[in-house]
Amino acid sequence: MSAYEHLIDLDDYSDEDLDSIVTLAQDIVKYPRSYSERCGGKIMATLFYEPSTRTQMSFQTAMLKLGGTLIGFDNPSVSSVAKGENLKDTTKIVSGYADILVMRNPFEGSAKAAALTACCPIINAGDGGHLHPTQTLTDMLTLKMEKGRLDHLKIGVCGDLMNGRTVHSLLKALSCYEGNEFVLISTKELRLPDYIKDIITKRGCKYTEAFSIEEAVGDLDMLYMTRIQRERFASEEEYDRQKNVYILDTDKMAKAPKDMIVLHPLPRVDEIASEVDDDPRALYFKQAHYGVYVRMALIISILENRIHPLPLLKGEIIKDKHCHNPKCITSTEPYLPNSFKRSGDALVCDYCDSKL
Amino acid sequence: MSAYEHLIDLDDYSDEDLDSIVTLAQDIVKYPRSYSERCGGKIMATLFYEPSTRTQMSFQTAMLKLGGTLIGFDNPSVSSVAKGENLKDTTKIVSGYADILVMRNPFEGSAKAAALTACCPIINAGDGGHLHPTQTLTDMLTLKMEKGRLDHLKIGVCGDLMNGRTVHSLLKALSCYEGNEFVLISTKELRLPDYIKDIITKRGCKYTEAFSIEEAVGDLDMLYMTRIQRERFASEEEYDRQKNVYILDTDKMAKAPKDMIVLHPLPRVDEIASEVDDDPRALYFKQAHYGVYVRMALIISILENRIHPLPLLKGEIIKDKHCHNPKCITSTEPYLPNSFKRSGDALVCDYCDSKL
Amino acid sequence: MSAYEHLIDLDDYSDEDLDSIVTLAQDIVKYPRSYSERCGGKIMATLFYEPSTRTQMSFQTAMLKLGGTLIGFDNPSVSSVAKGENLKDTTKIVSGYADILVMRNPFEGSAKAAALTACCPIINAGDGGHLHPTQTLTDMLTLKMEKGRLDHLKIGVCGDLMNGRTVHSLLKALSCYEGNEFVLISTKELRLPDYIKDIITKRGCKYTEAFSIEEAVGDLDMLYMTRIQRERFASEEEYDRQKNVYILDTDKMAKAPKDMIVLHPLPRVDEIASEVDDDPRALYFKQAHYGVYVRMALIISILENRIHPLPLLKGEIIKDKHCHNPKCITSTEPYLPNSFKRSGDALVCDYCDSKL
Fold this sequence. Notes:
The structure is a homotrimer.
Chain A: H1 15-30, E1 43-48, H2 53-65, E2 69-73, H3 87-97, E3 100-105, H4 110-117, E4 122-127, H5 133-147, E5 154-158, H6 165-174, E6 181-185, H7 194-202, E7 206-210, H8 213-216, E8 222-225, H9 236-242, H10 250-254, E9 261-263, H11 284-303, E10 316-317, E11 339-343, E12 346-349
Parallel strand pairs in A: 1-2, 1-3, 3-4, 5-6, 5-8, 6-7, 8-9
Antiparallel strand pairs in A: 10-11, 11-12
Helix pairs in contact in A: 1-5, 1-11, 2-11, 3-4, 5-6, 5-11
C-alpha cells in the first residue's frame, strides 16, 4: 500500500474525483492568477524515458504556472538508466528529491511499478501503449469548456480505433455520462475492440459504426480525429485507396454542423489537412492549451490530497506466475511482486492489464 | 498580420527602437536589481532545433534574471519533430504554453514562418546562416558600454567577410550612425559582398579593404574578429600560407592602440591565440556577458510592447512560384504562403531573402 | 590566484571548514523552510560533460530548495564543446552568466583547470576517476545524522578498494576523527593502495583487512558497499567463484548488528540484493536524499564566503614538463600552466595528482 495518491489509471478514481479535477481546471482557466503561488516551494520531477516534448512541456508549464519548480530528464541515454540502474532505484532516489514525479516510460505498467516504492506521488504521463490518463482529462476539460457539458453529446471518433489508447480511454470516460452517443469511424480492420463496446453499452450509452467521415459528420457535436498508420492497412493498395476517407479536409468540414468541434490528441501527421486549421471549429491547438490547465488542477488535487484512488495492486500475488507480455514492466524488473487480478477464469496482469 | 511584436530581423525595426533596446540594456547593467521581478510569472520557451548552448543559456539567464521561468528543448532528436511534426504545429502548441518563444532552427526564414501562426511573440535566435539579430544587439551594447558611443568609430572586421552573417548584420547596423569608418580585413576570396558595401556607402559611411591584421590594426577603435574556416581557402597550401595573417596574437596586439577593444561573437577556434586573453583589451568574454543584458532589455521591450516592427510578410503572395533555396523553410513546410518581395526586376523570397 | 572559494578537493579545506558544512547541513535538515529563500536571485549552472543524472538532479534540487534557479547542459554532444570550444572558453562564458558553477567532466583535474580562469566559484561534481568531494560530504552527513557522530566508529568498506575514488575519499576524511577503525573488505587483487593505508595510520586510526562480508559484518557500525566490476577479477572463473562473497543479501544482514547501517554511493548493480531494501538498516536511498541537504549547505557556504580553501595551484610552473596521464585535463587543454608539486624526489601533477 502506497502512502501517496498517484494518478496511474483513471479507472482507479471515482466519477466524483474526475469531475472535481475538471471543475477545478475550469476555475483555473477563469482565474489563473489566484493559483500562481499555489505550489510555491514544491518541486516536480519529469522523468521521460522516451521523448514526448509536448507532454513534458505541458506538465512543466502547469507546474511553473503554479509557482513550482522543475527537475528531470528527457533523454534516456543521458540518464543513469544508461548505466543499468533499475526503475525502482531511479524513482526511489528522485522521488526523494521531488514533491511530485511525472513519468513516461515505454514499458506498460511502469508508472504503477514505480508508484509501489516511490517516496512521493507519481503521475502516469504514458506507459507505452497502455494508458495516458492526462490526455483524457484534457479532452474532458475541452468538451466542458467548449460544449458546456459532458453528457448528451453525439461524438465521432475516427482513425485506428483498435489500437488507439486515447480513444479507448475517452470512450470509457464519456460513457459514464448520460445520453452520450458514439459514432465509431474506422476501416473494418481497425474497428473498436469488443470489450470497449461492451463497456459503452453496459454503462447505458449507444454507438454506431461508420466507414467514412463523410457519412458520419452531419450531426456530430464533436469529431475526435486520430492517426491511422500506413502500416495498419492490409496492403499498400488498400492504404492508397482508403486513406482519403479518413483525412479531414475543408470539403468534409463543409458537411459538418456549424457548432461541431474538432479535437485531436496531436501530433497529427496527414489526417487533418493544414487548410482546416483556419476553421474556427478546429480546436486541437486550443485543446493542447487546455491540457496545461487540467494538469494544474491534477497537480493541486494530488498535492492537497483532494482525490482518493483505489489501491495500486488489486490482485493477488502468485509467486510462480509471470506475465507473458514482453512490453510489460515485469519483464525487465524482476523484483516486482507478481500480482494478478481475476477476470472470469482468466488471470490479468495487475501492471499491464494483459491476460495471462 | 501577427498580433505580436516578434524580433525576426533587425531591419524590421527603426533606429529609435534599436537605440531604445540598447539604452534599456545599459540601465539594466547599472541597476540589475530593479529588474529582478520584471517578468515574474512569465514563461519563456527556448526551442533549439540545433544545438547552441551558449546562445540558449544567454537567453535563459536573461529570463531568470528578470524573475521569469523556462521551458524548452535543445535536442531535435528528443522533440516531437522526430515524430514528423511540422514547425507550425510545434510552435503553435508551445507558443500557447509560453509568454515568449526563442527559436533557433537551421532553416532560413524559419523564425518568420513560425511567427506567422504563433500565439506569442517569437525571438529569432538564429535561422541557419541567415540572421542572428541578438548577436548584433550584443555587439552594439558592448561598443556603447566600452567606447561610450556608436558613432565616429573606426572599426576593423576580420575573417570570412563573404559568409559571416554576424559581420554583415553589424556593418548594416553601425552604418546607420554618423562618421563610422570600416576596415574590411580578409583574403581576396572572402571579401565583403557588394550589396553590403553599397549599404555602407549609401548610408554615408566609408570603408577600406586590407589583407592582413597588421596593416590595419594601428588606428582602430575596435577589432571584430571572426573565424575563417579552413574549407573557405582556395587550397590547403593557400590556407597554410595565409592563416597566420588572420590569427590575432600578442605581436599584433602590440601594434594596436591602447584603447582598441577586441570583440568576437564566439566560439573561437584558432583565430585568437589564447595568450591574448590576458590582454585587458580582449573583451570577447565580457561581450558574451553583455549579451545577457541586451537580451533582458529585448524581452522587456517585447513583452511590454515598447518596440514596433514592420509586418512579417512584406511581399505579395504568388501561388505558383516557389523559392529555390534548399535551405529555405518553405522547402520543408509546404503550407506556408509563397510570398515574394520585388527588388528591381527580381523576386526575393520573403522568408530567406534569396533571389528567385 | 582565484578570487573565488571553489570546492575542487576536500584536501584543500580544514577539518573545521568541513565540519561547518556538515553542521549547517544538519540544521537545514531540521529547519528546511528557514533556508528556502537563502539563494533567491542566484543562478546555478550545471555543466555535465558526461551524464550523471542523479548527481546533477541532486545539485539542482539543492539550489531550487534554496530559492535559486538553474541553467546548464547534460549532454556533451549538444553543447558548444561539440563545435570544438575549449574548457576555458565555455566555463569563462558560463561562469559570467551564473553565480555558481557545478561541473562534471571525464578528464582528471578539469574542475581545477576551469577554476583557474572562471568568473564565479566552481564545485567539482566529479572529474573522471579522480575526485568527487560532494559524495564524501554526503556520506559524512549520513553518518552524523544516523549514528550521531563521526568518531569512534567501526566502519567496513567493501568492493573494489583499489580503484574506488569514493572509498578513498571517505577513508581519508574519516581518519581525521579520533578512534575510528576500518575493516577493508575486498579480493586480494583489489586491496586498498598503500598510500591510503599510510594516511589512515599516520592520522592515528587502525585498519584490518577481510576477504568476505560475512567474516567482517558482526560488529560494524556502518558497512559501505561499492561495486566490483566483473572486469576487475583475474578471470571469468574467478569472478563466478567469488562474486557472491561481495554481494550483500538478507543472510549476511542477519549476521550484522541491529544498529549497523548500510550505505552505498549508488548506482548499485548487483552488489546489494534487492531484498535488502526492505531492511530498516538499508539507508542508501536515505543517504541519497541527505546528499541534497549537504549540497545546500555547501552552496550557502561558498556563496556566503564561509569556507576558505588553499590556493588552487600548489606547485611550481615547469615550462618544459608535461603530465603523462592521458586522462589528465592538461592533455587536451594546452594553454594550462604546467604546474607540479614535489613529493620526495617525484613531481606530481597539480591537476590530476599523478606522478610524473
